[in-house]
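Weekly structure sync, notes
Attendees: PL, DS, HV (note-taker this week)

Item 1: CFA47 protein
DS walked through the input record. Source organism listed as Lamprotornis superbus. Sequence as pasted into the shared doc:
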Amino acid sequence: VHLKNPKSHTLAYNAIVVGRDADDFSLPKGNTVTIPPTREDFINVEFTIRFLRPAEAVLLLISNKVDGVDGATLTFSLKSEVKNIDPL
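Item 1 (cont.): predicted structure, written out as tokens:
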């Protein structure tokens, strides 16, 4: 997920994955995201296959107040589908 901060203040978020298949998605860099002023950053979301059915969850980015500034809460729909399996 690509995030941009066009503001002149640092934005900070707590990232949470919720939903039916939330356990199948993970955030390898942790649950805290900080974006400096006028910069951009990426949140990597990893998926671990457990079933052959499509998996769905929601990524919530909940703003933390930094220097008295709050950002908007952001939501992203996460969907993954297995289309091919190679034997080991």
